[in-house]
Design brief:
With about 190 residues, the protein is mainly α. The chain contains five helices and no strands. α2 crosses α5. It starts with a helix and ends in an 8-residue tail after the last helix.
Amino acid sequence: VLSKKQFWLLSFAKFADMFCLFTVILHIVPHGIDQGLESTTAVMVLSAIGGCSILGRILFGSIYDHLGAKLSLMTCFTTLFLACVLLQISSAPWLLFLFALIYGIAHGGFFTVASPSVADYFGTRTHGIVFGLIIFFGTLGGTIGPVVAGIIFDQTKSYLIAFFILSGVAAFGIFLTSQLKSTLRK
């Protein structure tokens, strides 16, 4: 499994998605406060992400059933990319709620398509170990992303560069998943 290109593409894609997801979840409230929201309103943005994540899980579950692993992952990353771009250009604090809608859908989608994508590319016989290894890479991304964003904010007193990096990482995820070989669904 470790020698297969598909494994490394999925592993680095999972690194990219969790790099972005955990960074947003940990930094969206302080960013909202920096944008002029009251702390309780900034927390409502985080709550909106959670609610929209439920919608994303249902939506991407259906998308996955019709489009399969590759296109579902590419759609998740494209939605994440659009949300990250919106996060960079939103000048009005209320736009954070629009961001929460778009981002939340992508957030939920990634969690829905992760396990079946591994099953599609590697089967179910070794699903547990392969999924665990891929999630390990994701966890690395989820650990590194928030720290990098925090360091950038501490140095610049702004999230602009950090959110630009998130857009780049999401775009890299689109590229990685575009390189996956489609699987035949039975």
